[in-house]
């Protein structure tokens, strides 16, 4: 896991990230998550969630892209993002080393079966607890109901961008043989009935091409300036895999930001961003949710006592309860609106006002402090895993100075590796690599 932040004002954007990476039950604290996307232009990139794409480390992919990009630039930051996504789809070196797509599809079908199997077991257990037994017909009905419910849930999710270029028919033709092998085992385990094979294929297609909230993905944050942009921006994508050679991704709008003459500052947290949210909003998001749920439960609990207190005739009670529920929903919304206004006026507004005028170095310091705050909280909390930690890397990107490291860990001693620094500042000019002697 990780915690990361982008802090933006009109002058610059600062990126900060911890160094923790979790593999199975182990946590290592030396991962790199921030990189320059170009050696000569003011653009950076930051990674969270999965550290690999189709079995290839993101660090390797980013540095291959940076080499191919050379001195090329784009008018807008969003153009860098689109070009990067095209690169991971089409680069022959990467394509030759990705996981086979059929493995991704088979894994996704496995996730579907695991999720539904758990629900079936839970429902059968509840049925047995209630009735003392579960007949074969009972189990068949529960199985069908749970699969149908899961299929419907998948179908209702929002589409990822890849759906525009990969149809169910294309998907079925490509992976029919691979899924037939799995289906033979599925049919033996589950007594679903007719059309099960067809529905499993449709579910696999949906699972691979929908925006699933819990599916494994990599978060990729682009930050900086395009040639035609005076103010900084961030573009964030959730990237999952390739299907039929097309990247499965979608733009995460809540994690995108752009400074403008009217938007003077932004703080955008990524991954474990609860402490950043608490700093901004004046209340921990988990506590805020608990409080909202409590308001709702308390208000709902008032309906029956109010009906009883006023001796409402039985034939009118249903209508009165409906009216009271509507009134209480309005009361709760009014309360939430007032609390949101309080947050804006006394917490978010004053903070953004100061951030908007911070000099670049102070912007970097704020970004670092936000990451360190989360690291400290995870260290001293008995209810949290220490999945955030290690050195905090901080980069600052400005229009004039480009991508600058404020704090960065090295896994090697710079004095023992002068060749690294001698060869790093190479730029691609007219298709040739040249040592830059002006830096």
Task: Summarize it.
The protein is of the alpha+beta class. It has helices spanning 58-69, 77-90, 92-95, 101-131, 136-156, 168-189, 196-209, 274-281, 285-301, 303-309, 314-355, 360-380, 418-424, and strands at 3-9, 12-17, 21-23, 26-28, 34-36, 43-49, 52-53, 56-57, 218-224, 233-243, 246-251, 257-258, 265-271, 393-398, 402-407, 426-429, 432-435. It folds into three domains: 3-98 and 214-278 and 359-435, Glutamine Phosphoribosylpyrophosphate, subunit 1, domain 1 (4-Layer Sandwich), CATH 3.60.20; 102-202, no CATH class; 281-352.
Provide an overview of this structure.
The chain is 50% helix and 20% strand. It is globular. The chain has three domains: 238 residues, Glutamine Phosphoribosylpyrophosphate, subunit 1, domain 1; 101 residues, no CATH class; 72 residues. Helix 4 packs across helix 6 and helix 9 packs antiparallel against helix 11. The strands form five sheets. Strands 5, 6, 9, 10, 11 and 12 form a six-stranded antiparallel beta sheet that branches. A five-stranded antiparallel beta sheet has the order 13-1-2-14-15, with helices on one face. Strands 3-4 form a two-stranded antiparallel ribbon. It is of the alpha+beta class.
């Amino acid at each position: 896991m990780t915690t990361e932040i982008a802090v933006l004002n009109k002058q610059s954007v600062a990126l900060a990230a911890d160094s923790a990476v979790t593999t199975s039950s182990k946590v290592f604290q030396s991962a790199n998550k921030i990189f320059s996307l170009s050696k000569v232009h003011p653009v950076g990139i930051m990674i969270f969630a999965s550290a690999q794409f189709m079995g290839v480390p993101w660090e390797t992919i980013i540095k291959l892209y940076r080499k191919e990009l050379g001195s090329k630039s784009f008018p807008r930051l969003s153009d860098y993002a689109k070009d990067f996504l095209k690169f991971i789809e089409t680069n022959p070196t990467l394509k030759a080393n990705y996981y086979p797509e059929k493995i991704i599809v088979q894994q996704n079908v496995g996730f579907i079966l695991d999720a539904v199997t758990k629900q079936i077991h839970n429902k059968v257990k509840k049925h047995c607890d209630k009735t003392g037994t579960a007949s074969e017909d009972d189990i068949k009905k529960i199985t069908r109901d749970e699969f149908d419910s899961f299929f419907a849930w998948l179908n209702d999710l929002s589409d990822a961008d890849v759906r525009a270029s990969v149809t169910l028919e294309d998907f079925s033709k490509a992976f029919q043989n691979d899924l037939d092998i799995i289906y033979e085992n599925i049919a033996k385990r589950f007594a679903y009935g007719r059309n099960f094979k067809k529905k499993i294929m449709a579910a696999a297609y949906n699972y691979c091409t929908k925006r699933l909230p819990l599916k494994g993905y990599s978060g990729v944050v682009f930050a900086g300036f395009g040639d035609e942009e005076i103010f900084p921006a961030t573009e964030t994508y959730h990237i999952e895999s390739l299907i039929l050679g097309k990247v499965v991704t979608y733009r995460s709008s809540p994690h995108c930001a752009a400074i403008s003459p009217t938007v003077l500052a932004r703080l955008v947290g990524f991954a474990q961003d609860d402490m950043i949210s608490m700093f901004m909003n004046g209340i921990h998001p988990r506590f805020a949710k608990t409080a909202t749920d409590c308001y709702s439960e308390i208000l709902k609990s008032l309906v029956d006592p109010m009906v009883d207190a006023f001796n409402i005739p039985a034939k009118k009670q249903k209508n009165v309860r409906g009216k009271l529920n509507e009134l209480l929903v309005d009361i709760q919304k009014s309360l939430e609106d007032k609390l949101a206004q309080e947050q804006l006026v006394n917490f978010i507004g004053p903070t953004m006002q100061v951030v908007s005028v911070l000099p670049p170095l102070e912007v970097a310091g704020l970004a670092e402090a936000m990451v360190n705050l989360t690291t400290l909280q995870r260290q001293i909390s008995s209810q949290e895993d220490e999945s955030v930690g290690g050195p905090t890397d901080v980069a600052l990107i400005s229009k004039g100075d480009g991508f600058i490291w404020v704090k960065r860990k090295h896994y090697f001693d710079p004095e023992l590796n002068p060749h690294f620094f001698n060869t790093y500042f190479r730029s691609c000019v007219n298709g040739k690599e040249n040592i830059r002697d002006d830096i």
